[in-house]
């Protein structure tokens, strides 16, 4: 019988490594070492690399889905509601940087042999948010692309950041730069949606 603490330990190590190096750049041996276990114990608790990846992506989806549902529940169809929705997403990405990192690896063709995760996990959430934003989008504005613009920008900023005057990278880990980024997104989406 698999114990939850052992499985959680393996999944936590796998999440860190898949987020840092991608599925293709991570081995089961690396996951075992990061978890402080041998490969047989990892397999006992969580299966092989593919099963680990699927479990990591399922957990990431659950966390993201919960955040989206909470943000949509407090949405109001006005500028304040749109900005609050945007802020909740930025906050989520700052609190869980591994999740945007996992998706960015997939965008770059990582784990290409594991199909269907976008349709199963990403598409329903994007459609949910786009449907919400559609309530305030003027005619002719593609709400899906408006939502994806926020996702692309937030993931890129969170993973790559921006260079400051001294050449240092600043991203979601930097509160002042995140405030600047957030203000930029508010302005960008405000202009796009005419709010």
UniProtKB/TrEMBL annotation:
UniProt keyword annotation of DNA-binding present: yes
Name this polypeptide is given: HTH tetR-type domain-containing protein
Keywords (A to Z) from UniProt: DNA-binding
InterPro entries: Homeodomain-like_sf, HTH-type_TetR-like_transc_reg, HTH_TetR, Tet_transcr_reg_TetR-rel_C_sf
A single GO molecular function term of this UniProt record: transcription cis-regulatory region binding
Domain of life: Bacteria
Annotated ranges, domain HTH tetR-type: 4-64
Keyword DNA-binding attached: yes
Residues in the DNA-binding region annotation: 27-46
Pfam (any one): TetR_N
Species classification: Bacteria, Bacillati, Actinomycetota, Actinomycetes, Streptosporangiales
């Amino acid at each position: 019988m698999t114990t939850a603490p052992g499985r959680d330990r393996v999944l936590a190590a796998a999440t860190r490594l898949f987020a840092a190096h991608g599925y293709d750049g991570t081995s089961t041996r690396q996951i075992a070492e990061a978890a402080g276990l041998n490969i047989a114990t990892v397999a006992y608790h969580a299966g092989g690399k593919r099963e680990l990846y699927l479990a990591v992506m399922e957990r990431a989806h659950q966390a993201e889905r919960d955040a989206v549902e909470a943000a949509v529940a407090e949405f109001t169809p006005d500028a304040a509601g749109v900005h609050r929705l945007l802020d909740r997403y930025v906050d989520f990405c700052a609190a869980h940087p591994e999740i945007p990192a996992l998706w960015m690896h997939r965008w770059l063709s990582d784990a290409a042999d594991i199909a269907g995760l976008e349709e199963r996990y990403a598409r329903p959430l994007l459609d949910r948010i786009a449907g919400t934003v559609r309530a305030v989008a003027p005619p002719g504005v593609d709400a899906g692309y408006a939502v994806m613009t926020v996702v692309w920008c937030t993931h890129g900023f969170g993973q790559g950041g921006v260079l400051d005057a001294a050449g240092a990278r600043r991203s979601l880990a930097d509160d002042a730069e995140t405030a600047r980024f957030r203000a930029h997104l508010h302005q960008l989406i405000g202009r796009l949606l005419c709010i």
